[in-house]
Write a structure and sequence with these properties.
This protein is mainly alpha-helical and 79 residues long. It has helices at 6-10, 16-27, 34-47, 62-77.
């Protein structure tokens, strides 16, 4: 089953509860340059030490998703 583009999927959001859940999920996203992500991961590791990161990329296009995960990997290597 092919996922719909985000704009289409979000068009189906009808209730305030659904919007609140989406906002909560978005608040946990790490968005920014490689340097910004490295800093945010470093900050997170100081507050909550961890040994590994599990990433889920909400990027819709496959090539952009692959690049996003490559940049995350590069950012995490310095931590």
């Amino acid at each position: 089953m092919k996922l719909p583009p985000p704009e289409q999927a979000l068009g189906d959001v009808k209730t305030a509860k659904e919007r609140d859940e989406i906002d909560m999920i978005r608040s946990s996203w790490l968005i920014g340059s490689k340097e910004t992500i490295a800093r945010k991961l470093g900050d997170l590791s100081e507050r909550t030490p961890f040994g590994e990161v599990m990433a889920v990329s909400p990027v819709f296009e496959a090539e952009k998703q692959k690049r996003s995960l490559e940049l995350l990997k590069e950012a995490a290597e310095g931590i």
